[in-house]
Amino acid sequence: MKKFIFLLISACILSASEIRVAAAANIGYVIDELKKEFLKDRADDKIEVALASSGKLNTQIKNGANYSIFMAANMKFANDLYDNGFTNNKAEIYARGVLVMFSAKTRDMSRGLELLKDKDIHKIAVANTKTAPYGIASLEAFKNAKVFDEISSKLVYAESISGVLPYALSAAEIGFIPKSALVGKNEYIAGKNYIEVDKSLYTPLDQGMILLKGYEDNKLATDFYNFLKSDRAKKIFKTYGYE
User: Fold this and answer.
1) Are 82 and 119 within one domain?
2) Is 236 annotated as a binding residue?
3) Is residue 17 annotated as involved in ligand binding?
4) Which residues, if any, are the signal sequence (predicted)?
5) What is the CATH number of the domain that holds 102?
6) Residues ≥6 apart with Cβ < 8 Å to 140
7) What is the pLDDT of residues 214-233, one digit of tens each?
8) Do 159 and 66 share a domain, yes or no?
9) Spatial contact of 240 and 30, defined as CB atoms under 8 Å apart
10) Are both 103 and 194 inside the same structural domain?
11) With 80 as the cut, is the pLDDT of residue 14 above it?
């Protein structure tokens, strides 16, 4: 109850024309385009975005962080807040993420996850497998493909998915990243530098969002929430590799 009261008080601190959104790190690749489209006719409005792993943001919200919308990288972390009374409605899917195996060096990506067993693959970068849904999906894929036992010693972990690509471009031979991370990077070629991970190997990355309590009557928050479900937003998500 104390946390709920704190959220209500905090919500009043920001004006109706300014909100803060908690977004999973993978959204960092597309959020500027989403904001640009939404705010193009709303010069007086402002949206601040905090990017981190979904698990970390979930914990922040439980501890009283003042956010209006939570855009998670899966349904679990969003619905957990519904179960704990931080929102009135269950999470809604706003996009489906695509997991990609990436290498800065040209490789035979047609081999799929079997490639990870090669002796010249010393480090494989993944996101945190407890708090980052793309890391959770990567681990699930390794286990379902029955390669985990052979490659577990090669795994290196980034705190969130946004830290994996820098690893893969420097200290690791392979990285497991969202497809959205490769938008605009035309120097990398499908089948040679990256390949989509077989979707049957991991639980679909249905990304869920919630409108947090205290913001049900905030016009900017509700308008942006509804925009994220609109055809305009879906078109942008698709451009950035989401389904």
Assistant:
1) no
2) no
3) no
4) 1-22
5) 3.40.190.10
6) 201, 202, 203
7) 999 999 999 999 999 999 99
8) no
9) yes
10) yes
11) no
Q: Other CB atoms closer than 10 Å to residue 139's CB: what's the count?
A: 19
Asked if residues 235 and 33 have their Cβ atoms less than 8 Å apart, the reply is no
Q: Which domain holds residue 155?
A: 97-201
Q: How many domains does the chain have?
A: 2
Answer yes or no: do 129 and 110 share one domain. Answer: yes
Six-digit token pair at 107?
């490789």
106 and 173 in one domain? yes
Residue 118 is encoded by which pair of tokens?
Answer: 């090669």
Q: Could you read off the pLDDT of 51-106 as tens digits, one per residue?
A: 999 999 999 999 999 999 999 999 999 999 999 999 999 999 999 999 999 999 99
Is-contact 71 27, C-beta < 8 A? yes
> Does 101 lie in the same domain as 80?
no
Encoded tokens for 112: 């799929």
Number of helices (H) and strands (E) in the chain: give both, helices first: 9, 10
Task: Let me know whether 189 and 148 are in one domain.
Answer: yes
Name the pLDDT band for 39 (thresholds 50, 70, 90). very high
Q: In this structure, what token pair is assigned to residue 119?
A: 């002796």
- Integer Cα distance of 206 and 161 in angstroms: 16
> CA of 12: how far to CAs of 15, 57, 125, 137, 176, in Å?
7, 21, 41, 38, 40
| Alpha-carbon gap, residue 183 to 172, rounded angstroms | 21
